Structures are given as C-alpha cells and as structure tokens.
C-alpha cells in the first residue's frame, strides 16, 4: 500500500532532483528513479539566471554552485567586423540579488545529489520507467522496464523531452526535431589572445555564416566554449549515433566560414580538438492542454511538459520554477484537491512560459535589420533595455498564491 503522501519521481535530471528537495522542504517524502546507472554527465555548461539561483539558494546549495561557476551579468553581441552592437542582461546582483552563472550541468546535479543524500532522499539508479499500470483513488502503480512494479501516492514525470510518463497523458505526442543542433567545443581560454575589454559571453553574428558564441566556464574563466548552430534534417537512431560519433565532421563544421570572422574567433576555432566536441539537437513538444492526469495523481514537468526555445537560455531555469512551485502545491493542498488545483498551477506556469517565448522572439528580432523586423514578430520591438524584473526576480511563493486564487 502506498504511504499517505509519498511521491515517485521519474528522472534524476535537474527537474527531478529540484523537485525531490523542494518536496522535502514541504515535509513530503519522495523516491527518485533514474534510468541511467549513475548521474548523467551530459549537456555541458548552462547559464543559470537569478530566478533559478534564488531556488538554488532556498535549497541550500548556492554557495557551492557559485564557487564553481563563472558569474556574468550580460550576454554581448558583436558584428562580423567585431563591433559591439547589443547586450542583454542575464543577471545582476544589484537588481535581482544574483548574477547570471555559467556552470556545468554536472556541477549543479552533484550539488543537488549531495543535498539529497544529506536529507536521506532515496535515489534509485538503473531503474527505467516503462508505463503506468493503474491510477486510482488510493494511488498509482507503474511498471519498470525490468518487469518490476512500483506504487506510490502520486507520480511525477521529470523524464525529459522524450518523456515516457507523458505518453500516459498523450499517447500520440512525439517531440518534434527543430532541424537545428548546436555544436560545441571547449578550449583553454589561454589559447586565445583575448583583446582587452572583450566582454564575454559574446555572440559574434554574420549575415552569411550564422554566428559563433564564445562563453567562459569555471569560476576563473579558464575554459572557453565555442558554439555554432547547424541546420540538419531529422535522423533515425542509427543516423544520430553516426553524427554524434563523427567528431571530426563537427570540427570541420565549426571551421566552415571562420575566415570571415574576427581573429579571436579564428584563434578559438583553430584550437578546437575533436575530443572536446559535444552536440545538442533541439527538440520541441507541442503545447499541451494538461500536464496532469484527470485523476490528478500523474503529472509531468520540466522538459517533459513544455518547450522553451533554446535561444531564451531559460530551459533549465524554468525547470527549477516548475519543480519548486509544484512542491508548493503539494505542500499546501490536500491530495484530493490535486485534480482541480494542478490545472491552476499549470495555467500560471504556462503564462510565464508564453511570456518568455515572446521575449525570446523579440530579442531575436531585435538583431535583424529594422526593415524586416515586422515579418518575424508581431509584438513591438524597441531598442531600449528589456525589463527583466518579472523574469529574474519573481516572488514565487506569492505568485503561486495568486495562481490558486483564480
Ligand atoms: C548542451 C545543452 C546546453 C543547454 N544550455 C542551457 C542554458 O544555457 N540555459 C538553460 O536554461 N537551459 C539549457 N539547456 C537546457 C536544459 O539543460 C534542460 O532544459 C534541462 O536540463 C531539462 O531538465 P529536465 O530535468 O526536465 O530533463 P533532463 O535533463 O532531460 O533529465 C531527464 C532525466 O530523466 C531520465 N529519464 C529519461 N527517461 C527515463 C525513464 N523512462 N525512466 C527513468 N528515468 C528516465 C534521464 O536519464 C535524465 O536523467 C541546455 C541543454 C543542453 C543539452
């Protein structure tokens, strides 16, 4: 029999671990099941913004994450002839209480796992969720790939963009490949003669050859990641395996057209070696009417539930908000009211995500010539600084009360 309020969490990525710790703060017990035999070490560095750092702080791991990351307050843009022409905020200690932080995903996962261990939160590795067997008034049962069966009061799928838990809610939804992937490689920053006052992270744009991103990693900025996007059609599993394995091909792609970019990019790209290459294919899931089953006992959140454009740099950050606010719902609402309360939570979360999607589109369009801006974005696009307070300094506890009051 499932214990009164225990939650099964499927997936020990960022959303699963943040959820487990946030539930613990609400005195709710959970167990996390992860298909991999050990913590996942993928994804390179991410940029964590103040809205997520405030949650990291509430979970008690801010200092350790901060000490391993590269703090930055703006993302800069330069033209092909190396002239700065735009910048947008990614954090500000003065305005939002936190900087933006470039930090390896594995560093955040390690800090979250350490905190889970301290709180005696059980994480079971090597357990692959297969399917929900039944959902009733007393709980949920499900099956793992190894044929064993689990049981809990409720189950949350935090199993990423290719979520299996999602197929219980929407059997026919498949993530759609956006025909773009990011190719990234790291070098030592010392391998580049960085001009003085060259603000990082930076995107160097070109009308003909796309753009290069140069972004520092580690607290001393000693590593530099170089990223470029490549248009590519969808592949089957075997095809993707070949693309991932073809590191030389990725290095060649990074080198294509580099002669038209400033010296700093040319030096960075020429220092790249195949062993440091990583690839991030961009997938999207369509907007879903429900993130929770009719019975209220099975939910999805994080990448499993919504698509955040990679250009917004908010995928991971919104995952933190999802998990933290879901735990608030669980802490303050009776489980019998979940079926009616969780849709309100979803509406509140979706409104924020929709606003973010508009912001990302506006920021992309701002960098196009003025004459073509209206073709790509119906919202007014100004040259003034975007007001980021709503995004970077949310009072999530108050916001959550407002969502529920509607
Ligand atoms: C290279 C790269 C760079 C990125 N940069 C940024 C950035 O700068 N800023 C930003 O905000 N976001 C960024 N993102 C996006 C961000 O990393 C994701 O949005 C975020 O990690 C999603 O977290 P998640 O926990 O929902 O899903 P995931 O991280 O995908 O975790 C899902 C977990 O579930 C497990 N799992 C899957 N299926 C099952 C199953 N059947 N049973 C059990 N376990 C299962 C997986 O093994 C995994 O551990 C980046 C992503 C990549 C790959």
Automatic annotation (TrEMBL):
Gene Ontology molecular function, alphabetical: FAD binding; monooxygenase activity
Residue ranges annotated for the FAD-binding domain, each copy included: 6-325
Keyword flag Signal: yes
InterPro entries per UniProt: FAD-bd, FAD-dep_Monooxygenase_BioMet, FAD/NAD-bd_sf
Keywords: FAD, Flavoprotein, Monooxygenase, Oxidoreductase, Signal
Residues spanning the signal sequence: 1-20
The name this protein goes by in its record: FAD/NAD(P)-binding domain-containing protein
Upper taxonomic lineage: Eukaryota, Fungi, Dikarya, Ascomycota, Pezizomycotina
The species this protein was found in: Aspergillus saccharolyticus JOP 1030-1
Coiled-coil zones: none
């Amino acid at each position: 029999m499932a214990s009164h309020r225990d939650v099964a969490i499927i997936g020990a990525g960022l959303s699963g671990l943040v959820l487990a710790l946030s539930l613990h703060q609400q005195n709710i017990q959970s167990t996390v099941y992860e298909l991999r035999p050990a913590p996942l070490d993928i994804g390179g560095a991410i940029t964590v913004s103040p809205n997520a750092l405030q949650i990291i702080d509430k979970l008690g791991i801010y200092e350790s994450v901060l000490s391993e990351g590269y703090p930055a307050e703006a993302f800069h843009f330069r033209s092909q002839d190396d002239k700065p022409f735009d910048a947008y905020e990614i954090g500000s200690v003065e305005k939002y209480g936190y900087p933006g932080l470039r930090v390896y995903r594995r560093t955040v996962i390690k800090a979250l796992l350490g905190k889970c261990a301290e709180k005696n939160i059980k994480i079971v590795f090597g357990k692959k969720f297969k399917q929900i067997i039944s959902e009733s008034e007393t709980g949920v049962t499900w099956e793992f790939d190894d044929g064993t069966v689990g049981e809990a009061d409720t189950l949350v799928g935090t199993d990423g963009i290719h979520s299996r838990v999602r197929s219980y809610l929407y059997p026919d939804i498949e993530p759609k490949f956006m025909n773009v992937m990011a190719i990234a490689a790291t070098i030592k920053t010392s391998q580049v003669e960085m001009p003085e006052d060259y603000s990082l992270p930076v995107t160097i744009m070109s009308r003909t050859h796309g753009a290069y991103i140069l972004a520092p990693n580690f607290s001393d900025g000693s590593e530099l990641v170089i990223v470029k996007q490549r248009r590519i059609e969808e592949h089957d599993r075997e095809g993707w395996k070949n693309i991932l394995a073809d590191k030389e091909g990725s290095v060649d792609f990074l080198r294509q057209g580099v002669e038209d970019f400033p010296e700093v990019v040319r030096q960075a790209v020429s220092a790249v070696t195949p062993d440091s290459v990583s690839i991030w294919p961009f997938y999207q899931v369509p907007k879903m009417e429900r993130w929770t089953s009719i019975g209220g006992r099975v939910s999805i959140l994080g990448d499993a539930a919504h698509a955040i454009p990679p250009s917004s740099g908010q995928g991971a950050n919104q995952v933190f908000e999802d998990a933290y606010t879901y735990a608030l719902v669980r802490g303050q609402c009776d489980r019998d009211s979940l079926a009616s309360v969780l849709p309100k939570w979803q509406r509140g979360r979706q409104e924020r995500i929709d606003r973010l999607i508009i912001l990302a589109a506006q920021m992309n369009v701002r960098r196009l010539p003025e004459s073509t801006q209206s073709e790509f974005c119906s919202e007014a696009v100004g040259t003034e600084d975007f007001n980021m307070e709503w995004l970077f300094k949310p009072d999530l506890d108050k916001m959550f009360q407002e969502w529920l009051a509607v």
